[in-house]
Amino acid sequence: MRYLHFITLFLLSISASKAAEKEVLILLPIEVDQSLQEEAGLLGTAVQQALSERFSVFYGPAVEEKLEVEYSKENCSALSCAQNLAIEFNGELIANTSVQKVDTSFVIQLQINNVVTGQITDSLLEVCEGCSKLQMLAFTKRVVSKAFEANALAQTAQPIIRTPQKTDLKAVNIGTTPTRARVRINGNYRGTTPLGLQVPVGEKIRIQITKRGYEPRDFVHIIGQNDDSLGNLPLTEKPEQTKRVRVPMGF
């Protein structure tokens, strides 16, 4: 009995040691288009579960709260915010994920960045052709899990890159002067400026920008056409409203 007890403790210690060896990864809130808004939480959980086989993953309210705090800072840049987020969770890896509907298919993209070295350590781009939303959930978990297996990473030092079959995604940066303006894409709140997005080339999106004390901006932009113009959008201060003067009654 003592021998069996010793073996059990030994196996548990090995399991705990392996878990401790996992790299810490911070999974940012998943980006989805309007048609997948209700499924965003389920898709994010599917990605988190798949990545947990390889990494020690931080995801959910704790990450979202810290992200909100970072983006509220006046001098926050995409890099500095990511670095501060990594420091908060004692890690170096930040994962961005997006799922977009293109025609009758879904495109999933996942990219892992090392905020210390500035390198892209892993990336994935897969197309689920003709999938339903339910099939997309299973597809997301399956392809992420398969791509980021520990054995697969050990066999190659090169990023895992999938070639898209029908579309290309482009990184787009939205910035304003002043910063910390709220951004909505196609009616969905995406964060505050400066803000980075992954959007299919050729997609027409509606961008709404608001900030207290400034006139709102609302316009349509086609991805791939003069995207650099989005990097520094000037905001116009609202004119001061005429103050109301209370006139005392009587003489």
Task: Summarize this structure as a short list of keywords or feature phrases.
single chain, 31% strand, 6 helices, six-stranded mixed sheet, four-stranded antiparallel sheet, Rossmann fold, 2 domains, Immunoglobulin-like, 14 strands, alpha/beta, 251 residues, globular
Walkthrough of the structure:
The protein has 2 domains: 22-165, Rossmann fold, CATH 3.40.50; 168-238, Immunoglobulin-like (Sandwich), CATH 2.60.40. 30% of the residues lie in helices and 31% in strands. It contains 6 helices and 14 strands. The strands form 4 sheets. Strands 1, 2, 3, 4, 5 and 6 form a 6-stranded mixed beta sheet that branches. The protein has a 4-stranded antiparallel beta sheet with strand order 10-9-12-13, with no helix packed on it. The protein has a two-stranded antiparallel ribbon with strand order 7-11. Helix 2 (40-51) packs parallel to helix 5 and helix 3 (61-71) packs across helix 4 (78-88). The protein is globular. Mean pLDDT is 78; it is low at 14-20, 150-166 and 242-247.
